[in-house]
Amino acid sequence: MAATIRDIRDRTGLSLATISKYLNGGNVLPRNRKLIEEAIEELHYEVNELARGLVTNRTKTIGVLVYDIQCLFVGNMLHYLGQELHKNGYGMLICDSCNDEEIEEKNLQFLLNRKVDGILVFAVSLNGRFLEPAKNAGVPVVLIDRAFRDIELDCVELDNRTAVYRAASKLIENSHRKIALVASDVEYTGMERMKGYRDALREAEIPVVDEYQVCARHSFELGYQGVKRLMKLPDPPTAVILSNYDTTLGGIMAINESGLNCPGDISIIGFDDILMTKVIRPKLWIMVQPMEEMSKRAIEMLLNRITKKEEGVPIRISFSARMREGNSIRKM
Questions:
Q1: Is cis: bond before 282, omega within 30 of 0?
Q2: Which residues of the chain have pLDDT under 70?
Q3: Whole-angstrom Cα distance, residue 72 to residue 245?
C-alpha cells in the first residue's frame, strides 16, 4: 500500500500542517525538513500531484502544442524544453497538430481540460484567435518559433529575416548574383526568411527573379523537388539557400541524384545544424538556431507568468542565428 502523509506524520512526529507546507514548497525549519526528507525516502512516499493541484490550483504540467512532431527541429526543441522543465519540477503534455488548424484548436481545449499550468505553442495558425480560450481561462501562453499577425503574446523566436539576409549576403560576397531560395510561403518562419532574401538582393541591386523562388510548406519534398526544378531552368542559379532543415536534406538529395557537384556546380547554404548536416559532404555552410538557449528562455518566461513574477505587456525575444562555416560555397 502506498505511503501517505499520515505515515510521514507518524514517522516524524510532526504536524500534518508542517509536512503539507514542506510538500507544497513552503519553508520549514531545517531539522524538520531533514526529518521529512528521511521519512519520504524510507517510506518511498510519492506526491499525489492531482491531489496537490486541487489545493494549489497547479498541476505542475505544461502543455505543448506542436505543428508537426515529425519535424526534427521540433523534436530537438522538445528535448531541450523537457530538460528545462524537469529542472524546475514540471512535466509536459505534448499535442501534435499535424499542420491542421482544426486539430490545433481541439488540442488546445484538450490541454485546458487537463488543467495545465501553462502552454508552449509551436503554432500552425498565422493568427492567435484560437488561443482566446486559454486567455479567458487565465492560462499563460508562450509562442515559440512563430509570432502572430493579429495579437501580441509572449514569444521566443529566431530573427528569421536577418538570418537569411546574412546567408544571401555571404553568397553575394562570393560574387554570386543568380541566387535562389527554397522557402515556405505559408508559414511565418518561411515568409520572414523570404523577406530577408529579398532585402539582401535589393540592397545589392540584384534582380529578384520569380523563377528562383521556390515556395510551399517547408518539407523534404519541397527541398527535393524545388532544387530539381531550379537546376532544370534554362538559366539555373549558381547558389541556393535551403531555408529549413527538411528542405536542406531534400535539396542535398536532389543535387546528389542529379550528379551535380557542390560547390562546383551549385553553392549551398542550409539551415539547422541537426543530425545529417553533420555528416553531409562537403561540409555545408549552415545557419544555426540557438535551440537550447531559446528553450531555456521560453521556459523562464512561462514559469515567470505562472508564478506571477512577470506581469504586464507581452515580451518578444528574438535570437540571432549563428553562421557555421563550411565548404559548400564557391567563389565566382
A1: yes
A2: 1-2, 25, 46-58, 275-277
A3: 8
pTM score over 0.70: yes
Q: Which of 130, 245, 122 is nearest to 187 (CA)?
A: 122
Per DSSP, helices labelled H in the chain are 5-12, 16-23, 30-43, 49-56, 72-87, 101-113, 132-136, 160-173, 188-203, 220-231, 245-257, 291-306
Q: Mark whether 298 and 153 lie in a shared domain.
A: yes
Number of domains in the chain: 3
pLDDT tens-place string over residues 149-169: 778 889 999 999 999 999 999
What local confidence, expressed as pLDDT, does residue 47 receive?
63
What is the domain-level CATH number for residue 225? Answer: 3.40.50.2300
Residue 20 Cα distances to 8, 189, 198, 288, angstroms: 10, 47, 60, 46
35 within a domain of the structure (yes/no): yes
What is the residue range of 279's domain?
160-289
Say which amino acid occupies 142.
V
Burial class (CB in 10 A: 0-12, 13-18, 19+), 207: exposed
